[in-house]
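Following up on my earlier thread - several people asked me to post the actual chain instead of describing it. Fair enough. Here it is, all 140 residues.
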Amino acid sequence: MRQILTALVAGLLFGTGLVISGMSRPEKVLGFLDIGSFAQGGWDPSLAFVMAGALLVTVPGFALARRRAKPAFDDGFHLPTGTRLDRKLVLGAVLFGIGWGLVGYCPGPALTAVLLVLQAWPFILAMIAGMIVFGLSQRR
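Reply from S.P.:
Thanks for posting it. Predicted structure:
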């Protein structure tokens, strides 16, 4: 039960940060990704500050985690172990980037936006369909 409550609090904190920073609004993200508008003064650098803030929390957090034998609310850490750049990783990154650039949503902000914006639903449904197709493709 402690794990579930910790995950809930972490998710709520993450979602709140997305809403406060405006990252649940696709026009904000697309304003950052549209570097071509820099010369006209239309480029929005705020996402870079959000990313920098995330790094300020994450980097010390990972350093602290490496010094601990186990996390406070689980039996062990669940850190990524893969080190290869394989076809699946590259294809997934490309698809993620294309989707993010086309609609301005990635999964976290899209789930947050579902509560705020009706236009997020097509993205969420497409994301679920993609997960189902991926799951089916992994079984064969």
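The chain has a mean pLDDT of 84. That should answer part of your original question.
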